[in-house]
Write a structure and sequence with these properties.
Elements (H helix, E strand, L loop, with lengths): L1 H9 L3 H18 L19 H17 L1 H16 L2 E2 L2 E2 L12 H18 L2 H15 L19 E3 H17 L4 H17 L10 E3 L4 E2 L4 H28 L12 H17 L7 E4 H13 L1 E2 L2 E2 L1 H14 L10 E2 L11 H20 L1
Helix pairs in contact: 2-13, 3-4, 3-5, 3-13, 5-6, 5-7, 7-8, 7-9, 8-9, 9-10, 9-11, 10-11, 11-12, 11-13, 12-13
């Protein structure tokens, strides 16, 4: 028994495995609703989680399936049961059980992304069906006004946002990777990557927040807008490499790669250094953005590996610094990943769920290194 413990402690991800257990147990103890199925929105409050928080939590559980399927599958299935109560007509609403009919396109994109990540492990058609349903609603927020892009919310349709367009396009790209015969998914992904590149890209290659239907651009930058674009472009690179490799297998000796437009697949190598510079403190390794946004930047850092652009070890340091500097005395997290919670600040589920997600991302990277 002591020998097994010693071997566990030698594992490269031992410290993160320990942190993961603490985070997971805290979430179950503090945020599990009395019905045993839903989560609570805030610690110490009775309100059921909004769909955004549910989506962040499901993203963490989906990553958990990649790291420890046996532990996370029961939690995933319970969360999937909760998700079904948010369904309203043809999309997931902000609250369960018909308490609200309000629907956001970005909320549904996050759900679709989490369900696809889970499907990669479970191969359960129930996960795929929910992903496609959520994607179907997210993509219904697309039209040709302003040349493309996805609205943020169903009503009012007054602006097109990076936070809805980037994850919806990334989900389309992930679907295209899973099902290469669906050219419509591939086309939607590329069309909206180019739309983001043309409409909401600053000179430093980072992505602005949104554009109104009158053409006014909100130039605020949040890390997840750039990061989701980067992550989607990484999926495009994966798609291009897969098809180039397949062509060379089918045509041995030719040494030919398919001639893809390389603007989108090459974007992460150019944009990620700018994003890291913008949001990651090189001295403290803390991330100056809200946790639900920053998780996508850290995942972009873990996932990007091209043209000698590698930020995985820096991402590990950021996760380590978050764990050391951001929780309160009860192990709960405020909104931002560069400080402890302020007095009276809500301890929202999204923040600790995002922390669990990046700890699991660090574990997944270290296990495969």
């Amino acid at each position: 028994m002591l020998g097994a413990l010693w071997l566990t402690m030698q594992s490269p991800d031992f410290e993160f495995a320990h942190a993961e257990v603490k985070l997971r147990d805290t979430i179950e103890r503090v945020y599990r609703a009395p019905d045993g199925v839903h989560y609570l929105e805030n610690a110490g409050k009775p309100e059921i989680a909004f769909l955004w928080a549910q989506g962040v939590m499901m993203g963490a559980l989906a990553q958990g399936l990649h790291v420890d399927r046996a532990t996370y599958l029961p939690l995933w299935l319970k969360s999937r049961e909760a998700l079904d109560t948010y369904w309203n007509d043809h999309g997931y609403a902000v609250l369960p059980n018909g308490w609200s009919s309000e629907r956001y396109y970005d909320d549904n994109a996050w759900i679709a992304w989490a369900c696809l990540e889970a499907y990669e492990v479970t191969l359960d058609k129930e996960d795929l069906e929910r992903a496609i349903k959520a994607y179907g609603f997210a993509v219904s927020g697309y039209d040709q006004k302003l040349g493309g892009g996805v609205y943020w919310r169903e009503e009012p349709k007054s602006e097109k946002n990076a936070c809805s367009t980037a994850p919806t396009a990334a989900v389309a790209m992930k679907l295209a990777n899973l099902f290469p015969h669906r050219k419509d998914w591939l086309s939607f992904a590329y069309d909206n990557f180019y739309w983001l590149f043309g409409k909401l890209r600053d000179q430093d290659l980072l992505i602005w927040d949104h554009i109104s239907l009158e053409g006014k651009v909100d130039r605020k930058k949040w890390s997840y807008n750039s990061a989701c674009f980067i992550r989607g472009c990484n999926m495009a690179l994966e798609h291009n490499k897969r098809w180039s490799d397949l062509y060379n297998v089918q045509h041995p000796g030719e040494g030919i790669a398919i001639d893809f437009d390389d603007t989108i697949p090459a974007f992460p190598a150019i944009a990620l250094p700018a994003a890291v510079k913008e949001w990651v403190d090189p001295k403290t390794h803390l991330l100056h953005d809200p946790a639900p946004f920053g998780q996508h930047l850290l995942d972009a850092m873990f996932e990007t590996d091209q043209f000698k652009i590698r930020y995985q070890d820096e991402a590990v340091e950021v996760v380590r610094s978050i764990l050391a500097n951001c929780p309160d005395e009860n192990g709960l997290y405020g909104e931002y990943w560069d400080r402890k919670p302020k007095p009276g600040e809500p301890r929202n589920l999204k923040n600790i769920a995002a922390t669990l997600r990046v700890v699991l991302s660090a574990r997944r990277y270290l296990q495969g290194r």
